[in-house]
Amino acid sequence: MMKYMTLLLGVAFLTGCCCTEHTLPVGDKSSYKIAVGTEFVSAGLIEKTWKTDPKADGTWPMPKPVDTSMYKDATDGVKGVITASTAGAVEKEGVTCLFDNDKNTKYCTPNATPWIQYQFPDGVKPSIVAYAFRTANDATERDPKEWVLQGSNDGKAWTDIDAQKGVEFISRFELKLFKLKAAVSYQYYRLVVKANHGGEHFQLSEIELFVNK
Ligand SMILES: [Ca+2]
């Protein structure tokens, strides 16, 4: 009976989205990417100057702070329509959690490669100059690794705005910024996730679509 209970608990732990930091075995080098209880911000450019490499001893350097005070999140104070390819793993982890400016809420979905869409109201086409992702509280294997950001004015014909591959997030609640080479203006923005870091789920706590102040 005890063995059965242990198995049940193990399955619940592996399939849920609410587990804590203890998802990686001791000694696994990827566990160095976790910085429990600390918030870091890393700089990002579309030219990939944000990319960091592990140090000689296998540990990861902490991300450098970046200033986002020149930007305003275009989704703040706007009643856009937020949709995704896949519902959240549980009701409280739905896709709207990505745009609530609360790092402690997250979109966590049992799909490694979902798409996420933000539709601004009719007549609103903000001039986006950068975007940012903030990782969630746990489970580095659910972080985005490869994606395409697209724009549209009818929700049908899409234009690629930016594509990233091999992105590593160093810490939990980390904000990574991606500056566009040129501003773009669309009513619809869609993030198409192409790969995560190996988990069965995908998750983020926040997405920001930045305009200049
Ligand atoms: Ca959130």
Give the tags.
single chain, 213 residues, mainly beta, Jelly Rolls, five-stranded mixed sheet, five-stranded antiparallel sheet, 12 strands, disordered N terminus, binds calcium ion
CATH class of the domain at 71-213: Mainly Beta
Q: Which topology of the domain at 71-213 does CATH recognise?
A: Jelly Rolls
The CATH H-level superfamily of the domain at 71-213 is Galactose-binding domain-like
Query: Number of DSSP strands?
Result: 12
Strand order, main sheet: write it out.
Answer: 1-9-6-12-2
Bound molecules: calcium ion
Helix share of residues? under 10%
Radius of gyration: 18 Å
Strand proportion, as a percent range, falls in 25-35%
Please tell me what the overall shape is: globular
Describe the sheet with the most strands.
5 strands, mixed
Mean pLDDT: 81
Number of helices: 1
